[in-house]
Design goal:
This protein has about 600 residues and is α+β, with helices and mostly antiparallel strands. About 25% of the residues lie in helices and about 30% in strands. Helix 12 runs antiparallel to helix 13.
């Protein structure tokens, strides 16, 4: 077994992995960016190393910085969690090549085969796993998309090879949209996954999203741990996940599970993973299940632990993260497929720092003035928070996961309502009111919803009413304006963190000279997100400002361009989503204040129009 594991991630998933390590008597190492220097995963770890500034590309995504931290810590394994580098085959390969360090996950070759969607589709088709009609080679020319549309009809899904969770996916509803959506999907793929290759699929308009948890070892054992239903989604982002699915018959459940095992075995896959399927919904009466003849299609393989792995852990009793570590250490899976029993029902609620009544807008700042999570039988909290923490807005908006188990789905829903009522958070907005609404929603309770329900059918005024009724104190999103001085004697020696802290509010600033430690220099980190420019603008026209903190992906206009109301001026990446910043009225572009890859804060001026 390993001596020490570096967790190449942050927040709740980093703490989740560290807890598994602790139970296996393994030491833990955290990495952190300057924005995360006070975050929960840093507090929890045995050791912590700074790997760079707030921008993920310069810290959590920096291959060499992460591997160097592992070397400095003398860690003999790296666990990637999910997101960031978890599905990066190049990084996995570098870890495999690093002497004395083991990659906790599937091999880089398996990640490449299954992580790139066209290769995965080919493997699954050869393993007799049903796949959605689509391409098995990357697409680069708009004419290829148009030809696919002529053969299979619209709508078409254009998907990034390395994508997932709706990122890097664009839907083409008619031929006139082909060029713009192809370019957008390629751009997202390059920005988020360092891979601009895309492929095509027929877009299923009313599917359920069913995924199967897989565990495989290097001794040839492949097990599935049942399925999860992730059909409640907003813009392809999962919101509530549950297991087992309340819509599947046992016969269909078994067919899907065996298809997943077959496909993974064909790919010589090891460690944990998830095989995702789309199941076509049918007209059915209340209480009627989808039978064995229902159509289901392979969607993709997530070659990592999933956010919602907790659901499977609650209904099977298997600690999937521990099993990941044990498999990576060469141990054999010690249970047969027939030993896997599904006990009860579980749901996971993503606690995102967003305001659901404002189109799920992410919070732009704030402090957890109150943080009082629920408890009791069947209630689990995966988080990395404590009361008084400042919200870090440089990364994903999910701050915690509430997981609830019941003997059956009805009890799970009632217990979830109780837990959500108990969950008290003040100082930032969350989507807890939205979750409470969903647990009383007829479509969700009856389990007849599809992946399109939130985007196309739910009355948005109900979300607004829920937020008003249960939203509580969400703060102003600006954080505490009181001057805070950190008399923080945090020293990094060769990148390793040692800390002695003293924080005072309302105290005068401390004059500080340079502190030389081992030839380095201790400097106060810049605010998260880096510089947003600060140049004076000379234009006197209407300014178009950033609506949230993020990074500029694309500037679509030039000085002198004439634009109309609704025209896209800038593409801004925030919370891993691509956001078009549009002109509210027509005019002439007189100044452009930003450029590609620049970080901006909420309220920063992007473009001036006259």
């Amino acid at each position: 077994m390993f001596r020490k594991v570096l967790v190449a991630n942050r927040g709740e998933i980093a703490v989740r992995v560290m807890r598994a390590c602790e139970e296996l008597n393994i030491g833990t190492v955290a990495v952190y960016s300057e924005a995360d220097k006070d975050s929960g995963h840093v507090r929890y770890a045995d050791e912590a190393y700074n790997v760079g500034p707030a921008r993920a590309a310069d810290s959590y995504l920096d291959h060499e910085a992460v591997i160097e931290a592992a070397r400095k810590a003398d860690a003999d394994a790296i666990h990637p969690g999910y997101g960031f580098l978890a599905e990066n085959a190049e990084f996995a390969g570098k870890v495999e090549d690093a002497e004395g360090i083991t990659w906790v996950g599937p091999s880089s070759s398996a990640m490449e085969s299954l992580g790139e969607k066209t290769k995965a589709r080919t493997i699954m088709r050869e393993a007799d796993v049903p796949i959605v009609p689509g391409t098995t080679d990357p697409v680069t020319d708009p004419e290829e998309v148009k030809a696919f549309g002529e053969e299979h009809g619209y709508p078409i899904a254009i998907k990034a090879e390395g994508g997932g969770g709706g990122r890097g996916m664009k839907v083409v509803w008619e031929e006139s949209e082909v060029e713009d959506q192809l370019e957008s999907a390629q751009r997202e793929g390059e920005a988020y996954f360092d891979n601009d290759s895309v492929y095509l699929e027929r877009y299923l308009e009313q599917p359920r999203h069913i995924e199967v948890q897989i565990l495989a070892d290097e001794h040839g054992n492949v097990r599935h741990l049942g399925e999860r239903d992730c059909s409640l989604q907003r813009r392809h982002q999962k919101v509530i996940e549950e297991g087992p699915s309340a819509a599947l018959s046992d016969e269909l459940r078994e067919k899907i599970g065996e298809a997943a095992r077959r496909g993974v075995a064909a790919a010589d896959y090891t460690n944990a993973g998830t095989v995702e399927f789309l199941v076509e919904e049918e007209d059915r009466e209340a209480g009627e299940l989808l039978g064995p003849d229902a159509n289901f299609y392979f969607l993709e393989v997530n070659t990592r632990i999933q956010v919602e792995h907790t659901v499977t852990e609650e209904i099977t009793g298997y600690d999937i993260v521990k099993r990941q570590i044990q498999v990576a250490a060469g141990e054999e899976i010690d249970f047969a497929q027939d030993d896997v029993d599904i006990d009860g029902h579980a749901m996971e609620f993503r606690i995102n720092a967003e305001n659901a009544a404002e189109d799920f807008a992410p919070a732009t700042g704030g402090t957890l003035e109150t943080y009082d999570p629920p408890g009791g039988i069947g209630v689990r909290l995966d988080d990395a928070l404590r009361q008084g923490d400042d919200l870090v807005t440089d990364y994903d908006s999910m701050i915690a996961k509430l997981v609830v188990w019941g003997e059956d789905r009805d009890e799970c829903i009632e217990r979830s309502l109780r837990a959500l009522r108990e969950y008290e958070i003040a100082g930032i907005p969350t989507i807890i009111p939205f979750h409470r609404l969903m647990l009383t929603d007829e479509e969700f309770v009856a389990s007849t919803h599809t992946t399109k329900y939130l985007d196309e059918e739910l009355d948005e005024t109900r979300i607004e009413e829920a937020q008003e009724q249960w939203g509580g104190d969400t703060g102003d999103g600006a954080g505490d304006d009181e001057e805070s001085v950190e008399r923080e004697f945090t020293v990094e020696v060769n990148g390793k963190r040692f800390e002695v802290e003293l924080e005072e509010h309302g105290a005068p600033a401390i004059p500080a000279g340079d502190v030389d430690v081992g030839g380095g220099q201790a400097e106060r980190p810049q605010p998260g997100g880096g510089s947003s420019g600060g140049d004076e603008l000379e234009g006197s026209g209407e300014t178009v400002d950033a609506e949230m903190q993020g990074t500029i992906l694309d500037v679509t206009v030039e000085v002198g361009d004439e634009v109309a109301a609704g025209d896209v001026l800038v593409v801004l990446e925030a919370m891993k989503m691509e956001n078009d910043i549009v002109a509210s009225k027509g005019g002439t572009v007189t100044e452009i204040a930003v450029e590609e890859d620049q970080s901006v804060d909420m309220g920063d001026t992007l473009v001036v129009l006259e």
